[in-house]
Amino acid sequence: MRSGGGVLAGAIAGLWLAVYLVTQVLTSPALDAGWTILAGTALSALLIVGYPSPLRGPRRGRAMSTSRRGETPSTIAMMGRSIPLRSGLTAEAAERTVRLLRPLLGGDATAITDRERVLAFVGPGADHHRRGSPIMTSATQRVLDGARTVVVRDLGPDGCPQPGCPLKTAVIAPLAISERVVGTLKVYRVDESTPSREFVEGMAAILSLNLELAELDRERQLAADAKLDALRAQINPHFLFNTLNTIASKARTDPDEARQLLLRLSDFFRYSIRQHGHFADFGQEYFFVRTYLSLEQARYGDRLRVRYDVDPQVLGVQVPVLTIQPIVENAVKHGLADTVGGGTVVLRARVDPLSRVTMIQVRDDGVGIEPSLLEQIRRGEGGGEDGGIGLRNISERLTTLFGERFRMDVRSRPSEGTTVDLRIPLR
Amino acid sequence: MSRPLDDPDDRRLVADLDRLRSARPVDAFDTPAEVDATFRTQRRIAVGYFVVFLLVTLAVPALTLVLEWWSQGRLAGGMSPYFVMAAAGLYVFFFVLALAAATLSSAVEDRMLGGPDWPADEPEDTANPSDARRSRDSRR
Amino acid sequence: MSSAALVTLAAMLVLAGLVARFARPRNASTLDFYLAGQRVGIVTNACAICGDYFSAASFLGVAAAVYASGLDGVWYATGFAAGFVPVLLFVAAPLRRFGEFSIPDFLGRRLESEGVRLVAVGVVQLVILSYLVPQAVGSGLTWELLVGARIGGLSPYASGVLVSTVVITAVVVLGGMRGTTWTQAVQFLLLLAVLLWLTALVLGSGFSYPRAVESISAEPLETPVVVDGEWRLDAPASLLNPDEPMRFDEPGARYGRLGQFALVITLVLGTAGLPHVMNRYFTSPSGTATRMTTVWVLGLAGLFYALAVLLGTAARAIVPGAVANRPWLEALTIDGVLRVPEHALLALGRIYGGSTGLGLIATGALVAVMSTIAGLLLAAAASWGHDVYERHINPRATQRQAVRAGRTAVILVSGLSAAGALGLQPESLAAEFPSIIATMVTWAFALAGSALTPVFILTIWWRRTTAAGACAGMAVGACTSVAMFAAGLTIGSTASDDLGSLLLTPTLLAAPLALLVTVAVSRWTRAPAHVERSWLLMHGTARDREAERLARLTIRGVSREGTR
């Protein structure tokens, strides 16, 4: 994940070379020099405008979007749409799967059931084998109970109770998620021959695998949600205690400031409670960070200096919620709190759409981290210190959200400060 | 005090504005670090737009020196591209540029200073600070 | 001059006065600015800024410059409009938020120094004066064509200058011309209406803009010159390409390679330092509204200047064919070319609208001149009365004394401007500077852009700017531009090439110099103590938000009472 500035420069250079070649070398006689310049300038302008310069930024007037409850990363959802049953055993997915598989399986009718009812049915007999109707054949029940494939040569009396049902033979294979049967795949024929048992079994195994993956996705999502909830609940009691102390002491000397601090504190809590989804606009997270830092500044006074360096267009970018503030809190708590003269916390945010990366850097010039501890943090062990746990929590959450497509670097030297670099893909 | 505006209506307007603005901002306030951040971001925006503005504006006369078509060519109807650009095109460009810059600057300020307007779906109770604000103001 | 034209003129002025007086929105209050998405307040304010800004230079001068120099003249209009882009980007919102209302006030409080305030007052007065002179010249030229009467043995031009100066000064001093937001807005709308009316007539008569440009560009661009006391036409060579004659739609009629850029930079940087325009910004309710106001100004200015350019072109194309059966026009022209380019719009108005048309255009010109002069004189009065008299000469002045000081300043400044206008004989300069009004206004822009704008921008965007640095910067900028300008006037006639035009539009050199001096001196001196507080005011929005919230609450309260 390189920074895009160099790439842009390279692209512009290449573009001018191409324009020069086309207008001056390949065409004969060569065009007027002005044309080269005009074309090059116009194309460069297009390139630069396409590249996010400080000239573009967030759109105005988008309200706080707080109702993104339970959303899933869209890439996974998209993959699920292309692979049958990748998003779980639902009626819709079953319907799509059945339509997709019927020509492949060599049967006249194909159905998928879960443990109780028919999820999808396509082919002759669809008039009375409706979606949602209870399972009718005892053979299906045998498959669900025995977790083995059953071949029915003559459906006859213990098959479909509906008179005049055209279905004669069937192969019924179980769909299982790690030994647990959750449904069946059924292939019927209207003549005497049975569908190929191996083929149906193989297809059922593939579908089972997909179901298993879907289950894993869901579990991972639950885990991420749980971590986020843990983070929300984990408002540092020391922080609250200290802030309330500060406010109490200011209430007498400077009531206006005390009131302002109270408002900020309420903003702080409200934000951490109200953020539901996994992602929020950077602008909102920035609000959270500066609310937090202004409270800490009230406590530490001149010892805590803060500098923000924010690109205009980063403000509208989606970032994982409650990620930046814990890093900043670490910088204040572990980096600066124990120094005599205090120090500066710098939050720097840039976006680079050429490599489609949001870069967030939190830097302090405080005490730094001992190399051995740093090594532990990098390996994700974190020891007993809560700072390590904070970073590890963030790193795990980012892994569940982005897989391998993010980077978090921690650089530090004792007594020289710490830098945390976060690079996450642009959504 | 003699101000540039001498009219009773304008004076009243200005007095109103002064009164509205001189109320010492207590509930709305910015910390120096926040203002500094906004200032830096605004400066990037202003400088960036100014460079674009200057380049485009100066490119219009400059292109004649390198591109004959610019002043000799004829667009539909008989005007040269240069004339079209100078007589009308640049005004459109200025307007669009100004609109973009103003919108962006205001949007950045919206997001970098002050808090979000919390959605109104929150249950109203006496402990709600926004409610406290309201009751305080109504007493004024 | 027929009585019909005079009657039209009088009727239009009375009408404008009536509209300004009685059509003003009643009960307009601050709260209205916050209502209806602030739209109404913003547009009104933008119109008022345009009314202040569009002077004779814009109304008569741009058309004249296009008429005389074609494409090179178009750049005046472009530059005048472009000047608001830096205002928007660098000045408008922080200036409004800081809450001071004049340039000296702002610089004085931001840099915490009375010295800066006084130096700024001096520069502002210089700028105002150099802006006033071309307005007086414009009224003199209008008088010459419209009335033509001599008063007390003076030439028609001098009579016009004197009469207009005396009348406007009297009106301003006696308090009749208040330069209120609404009046200025109405005046601008009148100007725009006149331009739209004339454009509609011209286009309605089958005039094709592109074809006109093509046909008049086919022949060399001719300018009337006086040779041995005789007027005759001359077709000088292009400045860019000496083998070719000047042509309407090609550059080179007025500027060499460098001159073009120098002019654009001068006009672009000048607007941010114009006191009467900047003073307007403080009727905006908030920094955001100020920005949107400027966007509207840019839109309105673009429309206005595009029309002015079109009409200048139309005059070039139409006047030669119209001379034949119009004796009055023949008296003004040499072989179909107007002797004084400023007459272009007036002649066009009379060709299409007869005496009434002439009267309408004259009204427009007079309104443009008057609104600008009123704005300038009021700015001068404010800066003397408020920044100098009240603060330094007589700190315990009563309201009456302060007003009297302001009036004295008005009389003094307008007297000086009349003297300046009389001292410059436009007909003698016209040969050297075609479209003299537009040219002269650039001098005011050059002064403002060299002395005020660099310091202004630095105080807003650089914390380390100090009072000493600002004083030095303003002094250097003003002196450099005046000196270059004087040098340009003395040797300008011999060097109408790059050097000459550079000397006459000195911003290209003077502004960077002022900037450098300000930075250098500031580095040597101590920054003001309360710079952080200034920063919170200028770049923070807390006050805006608080004011907006209070306004919203008040409105809610008012509407709640209304429903009860």
Q: Major beta sheet of chain A, specifics?
A: 5 strands, antiparallel
Strand content of chain C: under 5%
- Oligomer designation: heterotrimer
* CATH hierarchy class name of the largest domain in chain A: Alpha Beta
How many individual β-strands of chain A? Answer: 12
Greatest chain-chain interface?
B-C, 75 and 96 residues
In DSSP terms (H or I, runs of 4 or more residues), the helix count of chain C works out at 24
CATH topology of chain C: Sodium/glucose cotransporter
* Average of the residue pLDDT scores of chain C: 81
Distance between the termini of chain A: 15 Å
Describe the structure.
The complex is a heterotrimer of chains A (427), B (140) and C (564). Chain A folds into 3 domains: 4-50; 74-220, Beta-Lactamase (2-Layer Sandwich); 234-425, Histidine kinase-like ATPase, C-terminal domain (Heat Shock Protein 90, 2-Layer Sandwich), CATH 3.30.565. Chain A has helices at residues 4-26, 33-50, 74-82, 91-105, 138-146, 197-233, 237-253, 255-274, 282-300, 324-336, 371-379, 386-402, and strands at 109-114, 118-122, 150-152, 169-177, 180-189, 279-281, 304-310, 318-320, 343-352, 357-364, 407-413, 417-425. Chain A is of the alpha+beta class and 427 residues long. Chain B has helices at residues 8-22, 32-66, 68-72, 81-112, 129-139. Chain B is mostly helical. With 564 residues, chain C is mainly α. Chain C is built from 24 helices and 4 strands. In chain C, the strands form 2 sheets. Chain C has a two-stranded antiparallel sheet. In chain C, strands 3-4 form a two-stranded antiparallel sheet. In chain C, strand 1 and strand 2 (230-234) form a beta hairpin. Classes of the chains: A alpha+beta (427), B mainly alpha (140), C mainly alpha (564). At the A-B interface, helix 2, helix 8, helix 9 and strand 7 of A face helix 2, helix 3 and helix 4 of B.
